[in-house]
């Protein structure tokens, strides 16, 4: 079932000109179904349920993603054949960022939130159906054209991405198979944005479960005959499953207002704004994902397997970041709706709490990754064609890459804020461009002396620069957060994570027998427990706000119970008037 919020317990604020009759208190009728309140406010209990559902299904998708990478490593190792597929994997990586996560969602969620706010205000027609009618056909045509272009230009694309790649033809074949995901990911991202704006999170959270299930199934069915091309075919199948997982829920949302005619006037007025918004959002997401292009380009000139080591390191290290942004994914529609309603204070408080909590969680995960990198990779990948040498090389890369996880999380959390008002903003794109330039400069300088570790260091440096620029630009360009407070929320858990990393690494290294599978598991448990224990002790001592934010997020949002206000009647009698409540 889709998570819903409890019934509203107070009347909606009708405005100062609509006072109720003095002698007859009025209460709002209960809503027809258990769902988020029509005014866009969500209780803490609803947000927790939605975040829990999203986190559970996202963890399941991440686990299946690890199983997918394990199957890829087991079946095809970390050699030239896998490198060829991973060059083609650039297409679904870009498509996911542009069309599902950081791109299309940043534009569509505020647009749907504004349409829902207008529907709640009783605008003639149905603004939501008007938005779908005006955007979906055009976007579907654009997705199809872009996918066809990628398939046709696959040879040139592979040469540009990895000029030093050994098996060029194999990479071209895989790229053409994965080009289908441009269409399927675009439609899946559209459905996800619309459903999240409607506060429906179950189906959007399940898409990566469906996606990775499709890839794994196709790899095992066709791997013996098609080789690594089976993984590319699995991307095509998984993309279709992502759309199928969400379409029924979206159709139900649209059919609930099927009798209302869309408002054409509102659609025409929104087209120029929508075009500018889509342009700035997609350029930001494209620029952010171009870090992968720089990494693959630099790694293609290194010995065989460098791209694979970088890929496996990123996949594992990014798990803490993905989990830490789950709450931001759930609350992004809340921030967008607050701004649509003109409540900047509620939006500011929500963003500050989200950044504090996300930073606390990602730093705990990053500390565990750095402290226990060899043990994690040993247990996950070291079997079949993935050797102990691959584990050692990937662990070194993963530890360096993890240094940029805080920057990745801050960029993911703050970028949403820039676009949550549904306005075009060029500042995030400019900040990301500076970060990408830093990645290219540092990577070109570091790849020679340090190899693939230098590439990982460049990634961490570039994304940290972008995070600093985005935080510095908050204010009139975005939600006006209190920058000093946010810096404090980032600095205190960073200190705790540094101490916990050192303690966890020492504890894990002291466990003997880490060369065997059981020994690696014990070493990982000891190291992770030490990291968690030290971090938990230091957080209260340093007054880290993250754990307190968790408790405040769990607590339902309640307003004081309205007390009757006694007023004197002109003829000497008393009368009672119940004041309205406006929940923040």
From TrEMBL:
Keyword Cell membrane tagged:
yes
Q: Where's it found, cell-wise?
A: Cell membrane
Chief location: membrane
Q: Check the record and name the InterPro entries matching this protein.
A: Lipid_II_flippase_MurJ/MviN, MurJ
* Composition-biased stretches (Pro residues): 17-35
- Keywords for the protein's UniProt record, in alphabetical order: Cell membrane, Cell shape, Membrane, Peptidoglycan synthesis, Transmembrane, Transmembrane helix
Name the residues that span the membrane. 46-67, 94-117, 138-157, 177-195, 202-224, 230-251, 272-294, 317-335, 355-380, 400-419, 426-448, 454-474, 486-508, 520-542
Q: Which superkingdom does the taxonomy of this entry point to?
A: Bacteria
Topology in the lipid bilayer is annotated as: Multi-pass membrane protein
Query: What are the start and end residues of every segment in region (Disordered)?
Result: 1-41, 554-573
UniProt name for this protein = Murein biosynthesis integral membrane protein MurJ
Supply the gene name. murJ
